[in-house]
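User: Assemble these into one structure.

Assistant: Restating your components, then the assembled model:
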Amino acid sequence: MASIQKFLIALDNSLAERFLQPDRIDAFIERESSKVFQRVQRSGLECFPEIEREQVRRLCQTLPSLGNKMEASGFHVADEAQTDAREKDDRRGTLENERVLTKGVLQYPGAEVLLDMLESGERGSSLLETNMEVLLRHVEVKRQQALRRYSEPLTRTLRWRERCAYAALFCRYADLKKDGRFMNAALKLSEWLWKERRRSIPALPALPLLLALVEQERILQGLWSC
Amino acid sequence: MLKVLLFAPISTSLYSRLVLHGLLREQGVQVVGVAVRSPWNMQRIRSEWKRDGSRLAQKVIRKYLLRENAFRGIAVENLASFAASVQLPKGTLKELAGSWNLPYLVCRDLSADECAQFVFQHAPDVIVFTGGGLIRQNILQIPPLGVLNCHTGILPAYRGMDVVEWTALECAIQKVGFGVSLHYMDKGVDTGPVLLVKRFDPVEGDTFSTIRMRLEVEMVRVMLAGVRGIVSGDLHAHAQTPLAGRQYFVMHPRLKAVAEENLKKSLRNS
């Protein structure tokens, strides 16, 4: 009996929570960002699909804060051609009643609309706050199933991009509000996305996840210590 | 006489057994039944696995298999040492209820129809909830006083899961503190009217694990003190302001590591 108890106690102690280790994230960031920059240096930003150009720009702005060696390489992408205001208005118009989540279904492109709001002067708007609180609860309750249902049929890649955009959105909102609950959800989201990409055949594009992870690691640096 | 019915998550729960043991000895209290959620339910296993991941395996080992033995060799006050001090009989909740001839129900879900029928039949004034998942409106509305729950955090500030860790992460150990709160359940998560809040001062060397162990003992004491207060009429519930707190969720291990550092810092500086 005593030996069974000892075995159970040892088993209990060995069941540490498993999670995506920071060194694996660092290695991914290093590897994938290097690929992106080599490609830009070789063929220019134009070689990326239009949908990815803004992400590459964002990556260039964010990576130096992680001390990534790309900063030293002299790599630079002109800070130009941000999405124009009309395009943002069009995106926002797609939201029914300005709600990103309706009866468990996500409006597309909800993540992009909320990211636009974060980057514009609407950071404190109740609309943003309301949507983010609803999304937080949705992600925490539905977990891996949370970002699967959209208001319109999306290709596999578009759906992937949108889900990665949600992970980045949660990071940036956590940073803005200094609210760890959103960082917590972002960490879970990025881990689910990581696992999904590893299983995917053919591989899902790395750039959207790369951007989300770079945002995550940037914001995690020292933000939460007292 | 206050008629009380106990809800429990599993028949081996030490917390539930201690609360029942205490209730059976309270003046002016009549325990009218015990309802326990069955652990052998795929829906329950699936939803708890989704929420807790590997922590579920730890819960099963500690609460179902090891029980009091999970605390062996631990120096801080814990449920097992408390059980020994109050001479809690060995065995399960079923055996404890059986020795007092209490009606006992094992059900798939504590909000299931069979459980609602059981509650109707025994007509308690209050249900004492010691775990077992969400309770739906069909049950919440039956007892005239309501359903009592003891939460391991300070209400209204910290609602939901892992709030000991969240208090540390948000540097609120001095400002809000650790503790337990006794409240009536409503349809929200830890949003119902609060009866009693007991604060707890951590000491140097405390970890989340030792704090939780001591809070679990406080939960038993506060639950019994709450029932006593209801019987004597000394305790009155106060509604929570919705915006006075936030709901927290299971904390990711990376944030938990930061929270642990914050706890150590706070204990060193206090």
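Strands of chain A lie at 101-102, 105-106.
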